[in-house]
Every structure is written in structure tokens, then in C-alpha cells.
Amino acid sequence: MTSQRKQIPKIDYGIILTLMLMMIASLIIIYSAQTTGQYKQNFVLQQIMWYTIGSVAAAFVIQFDSEQMRKISWYLYGIGLVMLIILFLSPENIDFTRKVNGAQSWFFIPKVGAIQPSEFMKVFTILALARIATDHHVKFIHKTTKTDFWLLVKLGIATAVPVAFILKQPDLGTSLVFLAIFLGMVLVSGITWKLLVPIFTGVSLFGGTVLYIAIKMPQYLKFLGVKQYQFKRIYSWLDPYTYQSNEGFQLVKSLLAIGSGMTSGKGFGNREVYMPESHSDFIFSTLGEEFGFIGGSIVISLFFLLIYQITRVGLDTKNPFYSYICVGVISMIAFHVFQNIGMTIGLLPITGIPLPFISYGGSSLLSNMLAIGIIMSIRYHYKKYMFSSND
């Protein structure tokens, strides 16, 4: 009997194919969405440009191995934090950091466009949290409740610092993505449930209490330091038709668009419901109206496939640092998909975060492509062999 050792190809062509299908879906839906009279730009060409730049960036990131990523993780985290601090300190009246829709979240660069630092900070934070968890387990081989608590504190601080600046912009939706990344990391970091259960229970009870007071007894919100107007999105989510002239307008239109699409949709370009931001945050509403339940299911299936592919990479590698990165990227993408689609169908409040790889947006698409580049780097650099035997 002879044994032949075959090395698995380093490039994960399955992920590349999935991204190509997402790109095609994105361009088709954006092309239809930009025909609305609200828009003057050619978002399709810009999306192609950002996909091209993102692909180049991903190809560049693939060259970095585990040790190199570990070394630059804190530098990238620091760069991202500096950008957030600059935004925080910049005056609102200058064009470079002007407010858009009440949020000061972008740098406006001539001939380039708007760059949103918080989008890139999500990827940088994933690398930092992966490094923290890995270094902690190397240092503390014997786990105790004290060492687990210390790990939880370090992960919490590294997440809370950028979130504090992002909330000041204000951008609640992006802040929730950081929370999802943090929770994903914590759940796989090996921290004992003796710590996690009481902490998560306490936080959940507090959040539930605040939400109950906001809905049933809003006059008491002032005792919690919260203003009633901050819950308008919650109110419009629970009863959108009462608030359809203001905060509930987009949700009502989204429900009407998706509902009218029914099973197979009205067909490409045959939209009848006017939907603001139909090329970005509410692109799933356009998809639902034109391609119906079938079209929406296909796009959701692509996300399930991508998450499965990333999960497979994380399970195959024996490098803990790589595994933590995979968990962080999965948490980021999964939350984006769940929140974005959830808000368009009334399942969740509107928070204004895009649908990954589908919605128009340079910073969002580029940061997601960087994350995929890191995943492909993991696949590219670890060595695994398949064994086959011939009699």
C-alpha cells in the first residue's frame, strides 16, 4: 500500500465565488434602486470601483501571516482610534468632517468620497480582541475565576473605548455591531459561565427595565438619565403607522414594498413603492419588492454559505489567534445581516446599518473585503494535508 500526500489548495475559491455572486446581486439591485428620482449619481459604477479596491486590498492582506498580523494588530487598533478621536475633536462647521443626517461619522475627501472610520475600526477591533484572548491564554495556562474576570475586563475595555467615541457621533447601529463582536469573542474565549451568566443576566434585566419604562412609563425616564426623544425609533418600531409621517415612514414603506413583492416579486425595475435609501440601508426592501420571497431567500442563502465557509476555515486552523478572528468576523457579518433585514421587515428597530456586500457604501464594502482578506489569509497560510492511499 502506498500513501500519497496531497496539499489542499491555498486559495479558497468557494469564498471567492460566493463574493462574486453577492457582487452581481448588489449591482443588479443598486442599478434598479438608483433609477428613483431621488438620486443623481451612478452608484453602480461607484460600487464596482469599491469592489475593485476592496479586492486589491484583500489580495494585499492575504500576504500577511499569523505572526505579522499579531504584530500589527495594536498598531491598526491605534490608527483606528486616532481617526475616531479626530472626528470627535473636529468642529461641525468644517466641510472635511461635516455632519450628515445628524451624525458626524465621516471624513470627506475630495475626489475620493466619504470615509467612515468606524467601519474599519470594527475589523481592527477584531484583531485586537483576538490578540488579547490569545496572549491571555498563553500567559495564564491555569485558569481561575480571577484570570477569567481579568480577560473579560480587558476585552471589555478594548471594545468600550472605540464604542464611546462612536456613540458620541452619534451612531448607535455601529456601536451595536461592536457589542456583537465582543459577545462572540467572549462566548468562545473560555471564560467560565459562573461569571458570564450573572453579568449577562444583570445587563439584560437592566436593559429590559429601561425598555419597559420607556414604553409603559416614559415620564420616569428622566430618573435614569435618558430623554424620551431618544426612544422615538422604539416607539415607531412598535407602532409604525402612528408615526408614519416621521420616524415610522421608512418602516411603513419597507413593509409595503416587501409585502407587495409576495413570492416572486414584481420583476426587475418594476417598483411602485417610493423607498428612501433604497440603494443602501433599505436595499433589502428593493430586493423584496422586485424579486419577492424567492429573491430574498437566495441572497440570505448566500450569507449562510459565506458564514459556513468562514466557520470551516476557523475549525480547520489550529492557530487560536486565527480562530478568534474567524469568530469576530462571523459575529460582525451575522449581526449586520440579522439587524439589517430585521429592521426592513419590522422585526427589529431601525438602526441604519448596511447589508454587507449588497448595500451601496464604500467604507462598509471596503472594511468587509478587508475582513474577508484576513479570512483568506488564514486559509492561505495554514498547512493541511489530505491523505489518500492506493492498494
UniProtKB/TrEMBL annotation:
Q: Where in the cell is it found?
A: Membrane
Keyword Glycosyltransferase carried by entry: yes
Q: Does the keyword Ion transport apply?
A: no
Q: Which UniProt keywords apply?
A: Cell membrane, Cell shape, Cell wall biogenesis/degradation, Glycosyltransferase, Membrane, Peptidoglycan synthesis, Transferase, Transmembrane, Transmembrane helix
**Chief localization:** membrane
Gene Ontology terms, cellular component aspect?
Answer: cell division site; plasma membrane
Q: Provide one Gene Ontology biological process annotation.
A: cell wall organization
Q: What is its membrane topology? A: Multi-pass membrane protein
Q: Which PROSITE patterns match?
A: FTSW_RODA_SPOVE
Domain of life of the organism encoding this protein: Bacteria
Q: Where are the transmembrane segments?
A: 12-31, 43-62, 74-94, 106-129, 149-166, 172-188, 195-215, 291-309, 321-338, 358-378
Name of the protein in its database record: Rod shape-determining protein RodA
